[in-house]
Amino acid sequence: MTTKPIKWTYLKYLFWFGPILTIMGITAQEVAGEWSAVSLALLIAGLVIIGLWVLLLDQLAPGFWRRRSTQVGTNAVIATLAMFVIIGLINFLGVRYGVQIDLTENQLFTLSPQSQQVVRNLDQAVKVWIFESPANPADQELLENYRRYGSNLEFEFVDPQLQPELAQKFNVNYIGEVYLEYGNQRELVQTINQGERLSEINLTNAIERITRNRAELDKVYFLQGHGERPLDTSEEGGLSQAVSALQTKNFTVEPLNLAEQPAVPDDASLIVIAGPKRALFEPEVQALEAYLADGGSLLVMIDPDTNPGLESLLSDWGVMLTNQIVIDASGQGRLVGLGPATPLVTQYGDHPITQDFGSGFSIYPLAQPVDTQPVEGIKQTPLVLTNPESWAENTPEQQPLEFNEQEGDRPGPLVLGVALSRQAESSTPSPKSEPEATETPEASPDTDEPEVTETPEASPTPSPEESPEASPSPIQTDKSQVEQDKAESRLIVYGNSNFATDSWFDQQLNPDVFVNSVSWLSKRDEQALSISPKEPEDRRINLTPVQSGMLGWLAVLIVPAFGFLTAGALWWLRR
After folding, report:
1. By C-alpha distance, which of 299, 401, 389 is closest to 343?
2. Residue 410 near residue 380, CB atoms below 8 Å
3. Which residues of 552-567 are buried (b: 16+ CB within 10 A; e: fewer)?
4. 25-84, pLDDT tens digit by residue?
5. Which of left, alpha, beta for 180 (phi over 0: left; psi -120 to 50: alpha)?
């Protein structure tokens, strides 16, 4: 009978001093908050003992490394260490290069494309001050989302009671006020509380408003005097919700009566003609034509069975309205309570207005198709298209509604809205004002940008203060770019105005169709035209007392009884 060497019998227990001293040293450092001589000595002593034990292990226990148990244990230790290393690397990469995936139905935790673009375009720091303590997790997460898209956005939560001088600096009146600071400008965004948290819509619009000085370019005039849709809720079919949405997007809305003044105001960003019931006077049409020729923008929404007297203006752009009624025979509308004369649209054109709509829904009650024919120098893009199972009904008074090509009905898909643009007729300088312009190439009719030449006076809209020999300064370059944008005439025609009224405006994508159309017409091309930030869907299930009672019996009695019966039957068959 052989016995183990005495030195191994006792010396093997010295190994445990290594881990014990190492743990003692680390614990002493955590308690003290810093490395001291004692904690360092304990840690070093423990590591030295562990190292000596590993080096002398083969002498203390001959054949230890060749044992199968040692190999299995070593593999387990290496695998465990490798797992910790891999998990540590994954967490390091996750913190350093974080990626979030929003799995909610309406992308509730993802900023809208417009918010992302606004933050990316910040050229200097914008700070959000939230005078509330403690910080609300939902508000903090929203602000972190903003900061992921731009490092120039900063935020700070402040307790106004602990920092009264800062609260006095912002003139804080209530706990929960949110302010923006941009250079020496400060603006109140909103006041938050337990029932109303920080809103992405309010914050994005406030950032855009404080960083952009476009008030003089953002005035929208609604034509009045011909039975157009009212701008308030005084009458049925008003546009009060549409007006509020435009004001939220930093537009100024005013009525316009061209019978009282001879021309469109100079500060107009665009003119909206919403559902006129009577024809415009000829001087009014001429004023609109002159406004468009000078680089203006016009949004026309005309319902069937009306004659606004705009045939000459629209035909000049290649647009024709047939006064037919669009019938949707696909049956999609019936699933949500819509009739066949209310098309439910899911197809959109390739345009900045509709680029983020995907296959979302928009609704156009009693709409007429918008036909176009090619016109040289005019770019035409369909915006809203019906499905192939729709048709344009020529005799809607005949019931039942059936497609009859012999009576003039036309099969779908049909265009309900079209966007058009062309170079403004007044964008080319006259020889009287610019003698050198005869030797300078003009802008191409198919593009918004003039051809590049070596002479600075080749710009189609030179500033009167510039000398021909002077090179343009940065300020003059920015001014020239604005003039180039204004030199493009833009027109949008919808064969329907009901979709923008108070009864239908908040349905699905209807507000986005209207607001994005206005934004594009106002030459806000550098900003993201996108779907508004979405609200959470109400997914509550309302049960009657009978239904709730049935669910209770199912959970308490029926399902358990079925399980017991099944188990008993299996036992009986196998006994």
Report:
1. 389
2. no
3. eeeeeeeeeeeeeeee
4. 888 888 887 888 888 898 898 888 888 877 776 666 666 667 777 678 778 888 998 998
5. beta
